Amino acid sequence: MNVPSCVCRAALPADETLCPRCRAATSGRLRRLPALYRLLRHELQPSAGGPSYGRVRLVESPLPVATDVLTLRGPGGMVGVLEDWWTAMQASRGGSAPVIAGTYDDRVTAAATRLAFHLDYVVTWDQAGQFAIEIRRLDERALAIVCPAETLERGTRLGPCPGENPDGTLCGAVLRHYRSSTAVTCPWCEVVYPPSSWARLKEWIDYDQHDQAQEEEPLLAG
Fold it and tell me: How wide is the angle at C-alpha 79 spanned by C-alphas 75 and 80, nearest 5°?
């Protein structure tokens, strides 16, 4: 008897098409794609002075526009892939067609959020493997532009970002200070912390880490 396998070739239960590891990776990518989409805006003009996040920019004659970035940010790029999968998922569930509205930023966020919300269904869908592959490719293409591996400066780890999400929860993304950047910028929520706020930033980080440690103590004791 053939044992069903994930796209990573891990064995699967009969009723699922993604293993826990691929499911977690896909969930993380869906949550990251809207932020990457916003960051790509700074890369449209190769000579633009957007956030560098430790990048070393090559000294060369700039092109009028970065075509790979334009492709990802255009109608057939990230927004098109996400909305196509959102539409296909809704149809497979017998649900109504998605309501498409707002700016491209809004649409990317809406599609990625809905797909992540329905991931419990997606892992049982026969298209889950192809879906995970395409989401991974989108994520890798965007990351290669925003933070290319060959020019990435590791930076000094500061701690979790104390910025608040719209729902009141903390961002929690890892903040790093890069020698090539004056300010500290969160790679997830894009909050910028200038040098004048660093003393206060350290207090916030220390407070949040202490608060989290207190919450985890009862769990460890149990």
Answer: 65
